[in-house]
Amino acid sequence: MTSMASLFSFTSPAVKRLLGWKQGDEEEKWAEKAVNALVKKLKKKKGAMEELEKALSSPGQPSKCVTIPRSLDGRLQVSHRKGLPHVIYCRVWRWPDLQSHHELKPLDICEFPFGSKQKEVCINPYHYKRVESPVLPPVLVPRHNEFNPQHSLLVQFRNLSHNEPHMPLILALGKQGLA
Q1: What domains can you pick out in the chain, each with its CATH number?
Q2: For residue 22, what pLDDT is reported?
């Protein structure tokens, strides 16, 4: 049984074309909503849709910035999920496994990179490169049988407190000096 929403759902040809370049297993419905939101913004700017399609269809070729207005907090909400716009569209069109904006670095040709805090943000996925997030070194944890209790700070503290039961000396300052 088909729902009423699916009977009347309409994906514009522009959204369908842009989804043709979608990478990997990005959630289909969410990606469609993200692209649909982008198309609405780009249609207001002359030549923006064409520039994005050019960038997506010719990955190795130079392309211009494709910008959208920066929101107050810098994030974009797509279907109850908020994210940074350049990360969202890099995830849709280039790296489906992208986790964070820390994995992206703008190319020198980008005039409106996200980090520049300008009124417009470039979402052209080919204006960003992916950087390896640093791998944390392994944490070495000694095995139980390698543990030497004589080196434990707790044991050393206990030995101090048993051997030297000193109470701190409290001094009072009076008119005559120290009492």
Answers
A1: 11-130 (3.90.520.10)
A2: 56
